[in-house]
Amino acid sequence: MNIKCIFIIFILIFANTIKAQQKVIDSLEQQLINPTNGKTKVENLNWLGYYYARSNPEQGLKKLDESVKLAIANNDSLQLGKAYEYKGLNHKNLGNDSIMLSFFKKAEYIYRNIDSKGALPFLVLNRGMYYSQRSNYHKANEDYKSAMESFTLSNDTLLMGYILGRIGQSNIYLGNYKTSLDAFLKGATLLELSGNEKTMHYGSIMGDLGLLYQKLSKYDTAIEYHNKCVEIYKKHGFNRGLSNQYNDIGNIYTKLGQFQKAMDIYKVSYAMKKQTNNKADIAGSFTNIGNTYSHLGDLDKALTYLDSANILHKELKDFNGLSIVEEHLGTIKLKQGETLEAKKHFDSAVYFATKIEDKRAILFGKLGLAKASYKLGNHKLAYNEIKDALEIKDSLFSDEKMEDLASIKARYEYDKERAILEANFENDKILQEAEIEQQIINRNLSIGAGIFLLGIFSTGFIILRRKKEAELNEEIVTAELQKLRVQMNPHFIFNTLNSINDFVLKNEKSKASNYLARFSVMMRQILDNSEEDEVNLSDEITFLESYIKLEQQRLNNTFTYSINVNNNIDLEELYVPSALLQPIIENSIWHGLSPKKEGILKITFTEERDRLICTIEDNGVGLNPNKENLFSDKSFGTSSVKNRINLLNKRKGTNAKIKVIEKEEGICTILELPISKDV
């Protein structure tokens, strides 16, 4: 399919999207003519303000001014907060950042005062997206994580998946590729398990995975992900997303040296972006088109587009965009022989890249400075810039090697520049080579000595340990099998399937579907966690909540539960033995709470002197007449807990403890574990 055909297809998609949006606006305008009551009118005005933000922000602000007056008159705090929030969105699209933030602040104040757990996380999410667009990725991640906590509590898997995608995207630009990939895969898995793999949120993650693999120079893989995203966006008629994906595919052709093909695609993308009049999108198109004209040899056109991009990026305070444009401008000025101007642009590129901690952009800026300094005759400065670039390059590549990620293109570009520069200052080269050679000798001697000593130590030590390791491995395998058997308890599965069958017989389809979905997610968590000896506390709590919610639904919500974690505990950093707590909680529910009508289950995590204290309390019936408490030998699940604790102490030389206290009403189980952190 040629570029003209693609252009026509995309324009048709765009036209249909515009028509659909205008249809919504027309419908809302019509409802304003004959409102049934004041509240309906203020809601309609707010929705109009929201939709106009994308196409006509000035008109959107007029509608929202009217909404503010009506909401105040009706004493409707929620709608007043939404009016302020949507006014912020309109001002954002007009480029009025400070005004936008002030309206967001007003909306946040209202939402917190009325304890609006529904509206507040969306506001925080929108603010995070704003920070991301302005290249303030640390602040963006703070807001994303805050919104994530709210959506996790409400179990909104669609939005949880979306936010994980946004966190992944921010970390791409921060150079945290491992964190980025982890967030993307978590988000995609969450959406797949909840049946949301055809949503635009899933498409967004696919597109961002394409962007990540572009950064790693894995172009075939990148195109596969971009195409998955395009397929989803086409079905939804999401033209802005399509134009961005089209733009990203153009970037791949640029990196492959197919500049004319890239230019054709960039221009199609730009034609679509002009229709939405989004400054950030248009600035990105100007940057790409300008850089491609530079590769094609038309430097005058390249400068025209790049200068236009620079104006927009400055207006938007987009430091990521500015660092890229300044580096391109520096390269062109070098080609034109304007070396001093080139150096100024490269200095600016490094400055903006440093503000957002983009290591790759800093690397390219430093390489540009080295070229410019060398041409200006300042060989020492050129050498220092190359040295800085080497340190940055080493940090990038060591991180990626550790993460088993592909080498990035900067290695080749750095090595090429280094060879050119080092050939021109022989004295520095001799000194540098001598230093490098000495470092290699020292390193090899250290490694050799270490290997020799390790070999002597290992030979004697392994003989003594082999018998104990064999015995311990047998215990580990037994304990792991017990762990999986406890989780796959046939009694639990039988009751679960009976509950689903009961919902089906009663024709309660939504309950059956919801219950089955929760059960499926829990089974997936069980199988995933069964491969791990330890999981982070966040994942363990997620698993426990899945289990408790199933039991709540099966017992007709005859008990409530709470899970409290002290603020000083880092849920992602602290690790615990997987599924150690589930059998204890199961006993609390079935032996303590199931006979009661108003049961309470309370789980608390605290940290005291390098120990994690987990307290599980219930207000159940307590010990039964036969004194078969939580740790009766008749309970296979709970006896395996004791076995695992004993094994943990043997393996790690720790002193994990568990004790059961009978209260006036119910049982309190206290589990003490040594702190295990991801280091």
UniProtKB/TrEMBL annotation:
Q: Which Pfam families match?
A: His_kinase, TPR_12, TPR_8
Q: Where are the TPR repeats?
A: 203-236, 243-276
Q: Which domain of life is it from?
A: Bacteria
Please state every residue range assigned to the domain named Signal transduction histidine kinase internal region. Answer: 479-558
Query: Which InterPro entries did the record assign?
Result: Bact_2-comp_sensor_kinase (IPR050640), HATPase_C_sf (IPR036890), Sig_transdc_His_kin_internal (IPR010559), TPR-like_helical_dom_sf (IPR011990), TPR_rpt (IPR019734)
Matching SMART domains: TPR
Q: Which UniProt keywords apply?
A: TPR repeat
Read off the PANTHER family from this record: SENSOR HISTIDINE KINASE YPDA (PTHR34220:SF7)
Q: What is this protein called?
A: Tetratricopeptide repeat protein
